[in-house]
Amino acid sequence: NARVVESQLAAALLATHHGMIPKNAARNINNLLDFENRVRDHGDPRGGTTIDAANLVASLLPEDSYSAADIEAALETPMRIIFEGQPALLAAVEHLTTTGFRLRDRALHVYSEALRVRQFRLLCEGASTSEDTLVALGELMDISHESCQLLYECSCPELDELVVTCKQLGAAGARLTGAGWGGCAVVLLREDQLG
To answer: pTM of this prediction?
Structure first.
């Protein structure tokens, strides 16, 4: 729930930097896709694609974390109003109030992950079984895991170790899968490595 909160707040703050009235952003921008659509729908000369949204994150949100007070001031709305009727998200807000809200990192992960998924799909649709394609798919998986680990912080030491071990044993790529915070990894192997 903390990542849901951070992503929603990042989207709302981005929308205010994009000219939306703060209280309207707090009320109407619920996720990063909402912000991406706003950029597209308002004919922004900077573009309206996922790449453009990712670039706007890098330029509009500071690298360090926000405090709850910073966010409430920027959105002109208290957190209890933004997440009214959502007790799980309010609990996440309380937790994040002690640790800080890492809005830039969360938004960068979401947008860059969406781009990686599209790139992965295009490589697969190319139907090439070449070594170059396998290497490119593996690199996308590796970058994805690193982003999950560092920007979204949804990995754990055991899963990181599993991914590193798979790579050391010759996997083309490896990353966590599922919701994160432990559990499973998906590994890309060459056919001759099976069995």
So the answer is: 0.90
Q: Is 183 left (phi over 0), alpha (psi -120 to 50) or beta?
A: left
Residue in 43, 166, 63 with CA at minimum distance from that of residue 105: 63
pLDDT digits (tens, 9 = 90+) for 65-76: 999 999 999 999
Rounded Cα–Cα distance for residues 71 and 82 (Å): 11
CA distance 187 to 175: 7
CA 124 from chain centre, in angstroms, equals 22
Q: Select from 137, 155, 135, 157 the least CA-distant residue to 145.
A: 155
pLDDT digits (tens, 9 = 90+) for 106-162: 999 999 999 999 999 999 998 777 889 999 999 999 999 999 999 999 999 999 999
Alpha helices (runs of H) in the chain, residue ranges in sequence order = 2-17, 22-28, 32-41, 50-60, 68-75, 79-82, 87-99, 103-125, 131-150, 157-168
**DSSP calls for 72-101:** HHHHTS-HHHHTTT-HHHHHHHHHHHHH-B
Residue located via tokens 């099976």: 194
Q: Tens of pLDDT along 36-65?
A: 888 878 765 555 577 777 888 888 898 789
The whole-angstrom separation of Cα 123 and Cα 63 is: 32
